[in-house]
Amino acid sequence: MELILVCLIGILYASGMYMILRRSMVKLLLGILLLGNGTNILIFLLGNLTAGKPPVIPPGLKVFNDIYADPIPQALILTAIVISFGLTAFAIVLLKRVYVLVDSDDLDDLNTPEEEDI
Predict the structure, then answer these.
(1) What is the mean pLDDT of the chain?
(2) Cα–Cα distance, 103 to 53 (Å, whole number)
(3) Would you call 53 helix, strand, or coil by DSSP?
(4) Among residues 38, 32, 31, which one has the least CA distance to residue 12?
(5) Which of 52, 61, 76, 113 would be 67's cystine partner, CB 3.0–4.6 Å?
(6) CA distances from 15 to 11, 18, 30, 98, 117 (A)
(7) How confident is the model at residue 69, as a pLDDT?
(8) In the chain, what are the helix, strand and coil shares in percent, each to the nearest 5?
(9) pLDDT band for position 52 (50/70/90)?
(10) Are 24 and 56 in contact (CB under 8 A)?
(11) What phi and psi values does residue 99 have, to the nearest 5 degrees?
């Protein structure tokens, strides 16, 4: 199971970096999303894949006796998903506005002056 997730993380990171290095703003956003998903899976994998009980101490005990699932990686991933959703929504609106103003999604068209302006 871990080997499959490691291969998936590598594929997501490689495809995310490839998409970030393209000239299109839409591909840039998709690359950032792929990198974020790869990082979420990496955090999930580093949190140890244990099928255990929830981390609740029964009454009368002071320490855990059984194997329990660590909730910290899950909380980090949930927080990252919510933040990336907000970032994605903002970026989509921003990309739409840039496309309306520039009439292109090419990153080179943002700062280069037209030949008539020179």
Answers:
(1) 86
(2) 55
(3) strand
(4) 38
(5) 52
(6) 6, 5, 10, 25, 38
(7) 73
(8) 65, 5, 30
(9) low
(10) no
(11) -65, -40
